[in-house]
Design a protein that fits this description.
Layout (H helix, E strand, L loop, with lengths): L2 H40 L2 H34 L2 H35 L6 H30 L4 E4 L2 E4 L2 H5 L5 H28 L5 H28 L1 H7 L1 H4 L2 H15 L8 H19 L11 H5 L1 H8 L2 H16 L4 E3 L3 E2 H4 L5 H31 L29
Antiparallel strand pairs: 1-2, 3-4
């Protein structure tokens, strides 16, 4: 059993599972901000119910997602001690910022939002949700800053065989950071929009009596996904230039690739410096799914006069489309990470020098343990989301007014046009 292969498989598995939670968290919190803002401005009860319903699904995903993030970060000390020792002085700075933002500020604001229903003024309560969203984006920002440095090390110097940060601003202007960050954010918003549209379509297919609520969330989700898909594709293709310049072995021309491989061979010795074929294969399938989502925007005009609901078959398309953004995001992440192989920090530290020198048996036990734990969290997450999504938006527990059940407003009936 090869410890390096097992360590790479473990990191790929846990990172992929955690990334699924991140996509839903960023996507749904963006839509929640819109829903609660619309409620505060218009004072329409339907926006309050939708905020409570989608807020419940968001909270389930957030709580279990935090657990996967904590588990994932254990790996840097357990499996990748060589990486932590060599680049920890640089890589640790943005990770520390992310920890402060995500595990402290964001969680504090979210807790206040959860328990602030009917205790705080509406404007204050809304401001808390805006704060949650902004800190969520800030968390993603610092994670991408750290990852961009591994893709293209900048603003550092090597002293005593260890990398030291010399220019913090260089981390923020890294050419492999900006477009990648925009691409990840757009991917998350597309995922949130498709998830909202898909679940709403499911309720409309089942002829849920709460027609007006899911008609509204269907329109919001589909419109958001349609607009975000344009930015998703734009940021995606915009990355090719900077990445090809920073990593010629990934996307560069054959001439640039050969020159870079010759440079690496001279500096580090003979080795296979070409990325695995998996990187280009994953990229191809990701682009296909992205284009499919883009052409799926033709459904947006069908929102006019509720033709999308009248025809019904587009509702099934939206329901079946729910997994597509997740698959595309995983393929994109694998392309970014596998594409810099065999480097842990591109041009500085190889993966086989970054792994912790432990036996294959220990690494196998670690891999199985981490995979089972995060897999269980993922299954629990989607089971709970499906369970609470099936209940509908009639009376979500989150933010329920302190009144008797008899005082709850009746659910609007479904209009004749949807039958």
């Amino acid at each position: 059993m090869d410890p390096l292969l097992l360590a790479r498989l473990q990191f790929a598995t846990t990172t992929t599972i955690h990334f699924l939670f991140v996509l839903v968290t960023l996507g749904l919190v963006t839509l929640l901000v819109y829903l609660q803002t619309a409620w505060v401005i218009t004072n329409k009860p339907i926006y309050e119910r939708l905020t409570r319903f989608w807020g419940t699904l968001y909270l389930i995903n957030y709580v279990l997602g935090i657990a996967t993030g904590i588990v994932m970060e254990f790996q840097f000390g357990l499996n990748w001690s060589g990486l932590s020792r060599y680049v920890g002085n640089v890589f640790g700075a943005p990770l520390a910022m992310e920890t402060l933002v995500a595990f402290f500020l964001e969680s504090t604001l979210l807790g206040m939002w959860i328990f602030g229903w009917h205790r705080l003024r509406r404007g204050v309560h809304l401001a808390l949700l805006w704060g949650v969203a902004l800190t969520a984006y800030a968390s993603a920002f610092w994670i991408m800053v750290a990852n961009a440095w591994l893709q293209n090390p900048v603003g550092y110097e090597i002293r005593d065989g260890v990398a030291h940060l010399t220019d913090f601003s260089a981390l923020l202007t890294n050419p492999t950071f900006g477009f990648a960050f925009g691409h990840v954010i757009a991917a998350a918003v597309v995922t949130g929009g498709v998830l909202m549209a898909g679940i709403s379509a499911w309720h409309l297919i089942r002829r849920n009596p709460d027609y007006l609520a899911f008609r509204t969330s269907l329109r919001i989700g589909l419109s958001t996904a349609g607009v975000a898909t344009i930015f998703l594709i734009g940021f995606g293709f915009a990355q090719f230039g900077p990445v090809a310049e920073a990593q010629p072995t990934k996307f560069g021309s054959e001439v640039d690739k050969a020159a870079k491989i010759a440079e690496f061979t001279e500096r580090f010795g003979a080795y296979d410096y070409e990325p695995p074929v998996l990187a280009s294969v994953g990229l191809g399938f990701m682009i296909l799914i992205g284009m499919g989502l883009f052409f799926g925007t033709v459904l947006v005009p069908l929102l006019y006069r509720d033709w999308l609901i009248r025809l019904r078959f587009p509702l099934y398309i939206l329901l079946l489309a729910i997994p597509l953004p997740f698959v595309a995001a995983i393929l994109g992440w694998l392309t970014r990470e596998v594409g810099r192989q065999p480097w842990a920090a591109y041009g500085l530290l190889r993966v086989d020098d970054a792994v912790t020198p432990i036996s294959g048996g220990v690494m196998l036990a670690s891999f199985i343990g981490f995979a089972l734990l995060l897999g269980a969290l993922a299954v629990a997450n989607w089971t709970l989301i499906a369970k609470y999504a099936a209940r509908g938006a009639t009376d979500p527990a989150l933010g329920r007014p302190p009144t008797a059940a008899d005082d709850l407003p009746p659910v609007p009936a479904e209009p004749v046009l949807a039958r």
